[in-house]
Amino acid sequence: MRKLRLLTERQPPLAGLAHRLPLNRVPLIPRLVVATVCCVAAVSASAADARAPTAASAPAAPLTHAQLIAKGEYLARAGDCIACHTNPSGKPFAGGRPMDTPFGTLFTPNISSDKETGIGNWTAAQFYRMMHEGRSYDGTLLYPAMPFAEYTKVTRADSDAIYAFLMSTTPVHQPNRPHELRFPYNQRSLLLGWRTLYFRAGQFQPDPRQSVEWNRGAYLVEGLGHCSMCHTTINALGGSQQSKAFQGGLIPMQNWYAPSLTSNAEAGLGDWSIADIVALLRTGVSSRGAVYGPMAEVVNDSLQYLSDDDVRAMAVYLKSLPGHANEVDRSPPSQYVSEQAARLAPLGKKIYDAQCAVCHAVDGRGRAPDFPPLAANPSIEMHSAVNPIRMVLNGGYPPGTHLNPQPFGMPPFAQSLSDEEIAAVVTYIRTAWGNHGTPVSDREVNELRAAPLF
Amino acid sequence: MQARLHACAACHGVHGEGTDNDYFPRLAGKPADYLFNQLVAFRDGGRSYPPMNYLLAYLPDAYLKQIAVYLSRERPPYPPPAAPSADAATLARGKQLVMQGDPALKVPACAACHGQALTGMEPAIPGLVGLHADYISAQLGAFRYGTRSTAPPNCMHDIAAHLGDRDITAVAAWLSAQNAPADPTPAAPSPLPLACGSVPH
To answer: Do A430 and A437 form a contact (C-beta atoms < 8 A)?
Structure first.
């Protein structure tokens, strides 16, 4: 998942977006161009090798070069390199993907094996320094759109495997496009300040008090998976707030809310089973909910390729993240909020019963896994209403994965329901059946009609 | 399959019959390869319409193929066409371009590829009846300006580039006023007057 840490402003209105495609396409949609059959083979061949989190595991026989490449391909999937470093209509790993920011546009670099325009002339040591320190081969500081604050946890051995895989990719001769950042954001010296505040280089250190599985999960979640890029709130300076790690956050520019992954029962994964989490991450659907928006891309390009053991390890680690009482606002609703809910809910119920209940059921229980439950679903009732509003506006399909190749889709309603009608039905599903969500206004709905789709 | 396609039905109808909205076209009965090509184009960027690009972004080829085949076999009735909004001379010009083409403009008859009954041609050329005038003219404009592209050679780009604005208006007006034939089946494959990349040779 891409998240631009330096961004704090809202996405400009949609006006003209269609005309600007595809160059200014908001980078939500990477294209899967590599042969999936090969990838599946590589996963099964390399999963065992990739499972070892660190040097703590038993020593293994040296890998052949082919095994090293297969392991690297698997780990590159875990890191989702292809998502940012491939243009939707371009060749794999050739970069050039535009990432719009209020400060200008970043273009991802070519990381194919081309010696002139890719990283074909890099050494494994230079590649590791990039992963570990966030510096390019010549020492240039990277913009933190590259998740080096997470990749720094990757072991040298794993970095070398990814390097070997990238060196094995088809060289694509495509010069990097210079970033188009405005002054002063084009001054890389500013990054020194950012790094002082938010970056600590350091490989993952296993916790000997925890299981091998937990440590493997922690390594993947905190390192290659770079989950906190989206699931931890960023502050005004574009740094992750470690005091709120994994408590969720709005993804700037994309206007989707990445929910809490902690064990808070209402906001996070507290009452999700390990099996539910594994199903969601590997297949895109589960008995508790489905992935959509940016997370659909993560499952599509990355998580569906990981082994059951690895995804299970990630789930075990996530389940161990402590919840925080302050993740949920338990104060009684204000009079205004109560009045809004009372005013909108009857219209919302009418719309729900007529248009939503056929799939999600009158009692909001849905028909899992294809029609997700809306009752007791953190995605629906969490304090940010962005996701349910956008799902009603735009609908969506979970990704078609190896394990769920024909997903069911949610219809869009932007074209058939007014702002007030959508506010009413979202208010209804956020407050019915014991849900603890707050009402939404037609203004919130109207603003999200302009959110970038693609 | 119908239950998997609720997301499509919201705009294109439960059976792909289209809706009153000018820009939500009929899909039912169009040849499967045509529909598949469009689904892939929306997914991969050959056609730009963010709501469609968004919905299809992570759906694999095999699934898109199944969706295309399913919709190609649907046969919902056609709604009656809208009353023509253009004058008689414009409609006559539209009929001429559709049925005979205009050699001076190097424009073949639409019917030469889209079938004499304008119900399309197997395996990959769409029917033109049952579409709204604004949709047809918008597509010709998109072909002309390259925002709707196909596998090369992009024959529709060449045709649209040869048509003036008035001709596009005329073609759209006449086509949108036609009643659907009793048999909506697309025509059998036959040689085309020009090479089109989206049609297998």
So the answer is: yes
Residue ranges of B 27-86 with Cβ closer than 8 A to chain A: 44-45, 48-51, 53-60, 62-63, 66
Assign residue B49 the CATH number of its domain: 1.10.760.10
Size of interface A-B (CB pairs under 8 A): 100
Domain containing residue A59: 17-319
Is the pLDDT score of A18 beyond 60? no
By the 10 Å C-beta count (0-12 exposed, 13-18 middle, 19+ buried), A149 is classed as buried
Structural domain contains residue B152: yes
Last residue of a domain, one of A319, A351, A374: A319
Whole-number percent of chain A with pLDDT over 70: 85
Q: Which two tokens stand for residue A243?
A: 């005091």
For B137-194, how does the pLDDT look when each residue is reduced to its tens digit (9 = 90+)?
999 999 999 999 888 999 999 999 999 999 999 999 999 999 999 999 999 999 999 9
ipTM over 0.90: yes
- pLDDT, mean over chain A: 85
Based on the domain organization, do A311 and A336 belong to the same domain?
Answer: no
Domain hosting B49: range is 2-72
Write the residue in B10, B24, B54 that is nearest to A454 by C-beta.
B54
What is the length of chain A?
454
B93 lies in the same domain as B155: yes
Find the Cα–Cα–Cα–Cα dihedral A237, A242, A243, A246, rounded to 10°.
Answer: 110
For strand A180-181 and strand A104-107, is the pairing parallel, antiparallel, or unpaired? antiparallel
> Which residue, B42, B64, B53, B46, is CA-closest to B157?
B46
C-alpha to C-alpha distances, A294 to A301, A437, B8, B193, nearest whole angstrom = 11, 22, 21, 45
Residue A376 lies in a domain: yes
Q: Report CB contact under 8 Å: B51, A399.
A: no
Residue-level pLDDT at A15 = 31
Q: Name, of A206-215, A228-237, A265-274, the range with top average pLDDT.
A: A206-215
Supply the pLDDT for residue A9.
27
| pLDDT tens digit sequence for B29-56 | 999 999 999 999 999 988 999 999 999 9
> Of the candidates A299, A300, A400, which has its C-beta nearest B63's C-beta?
A400
How far is B70 from chain A, CA to nearest CA, in Å? 13
Listed by number, the residues of chain B in 148-177 with a beta carbon closer than 8 Å to a beta carbon of chain A are: none
- Chain B nearest CA to A294, separation (Å): 11
Q: How many CB atoms lie within 10 A of CB A18?
A: 15
Query: Cβ of B48 and A408 within 8 Å?
Result: no
Contact A395 B63 (CB under 8 A): no
Q: Indicate if B24 and B50 belong to the same structural domain.
A: yes
- Interface contact flag, A411 B10, Cβ < 8 Å: yes
B57 shares its domain with B97: no
Task: Kindly state the average pLDDT of the residues A271-285.
Answer: 96
pLDDT at A419 over 60: yes
Q: Please, which pLDDT band fits residue A25 given cuts at 50, 70 and 90?
A: very low
Helix and strand element counts for chain B (H, E): 9, 0
Alpha-carbon dihedral sign for residues B69, B72, B75, B77: positive
Cβ <8 Å between A397 and B6: no
pLDDT for A193 equals 82
Q: How many domains are there within chain B?
A: 2
Q: Is residue B132 part of a domain?
A: yes
Domain end: A319, A343, A361, which one? A319
- Domain contains B109: yes
CATH value at residue A443: 1.10.760.10
CB contacts of A399 in chain B (<8 Å) are 58-59
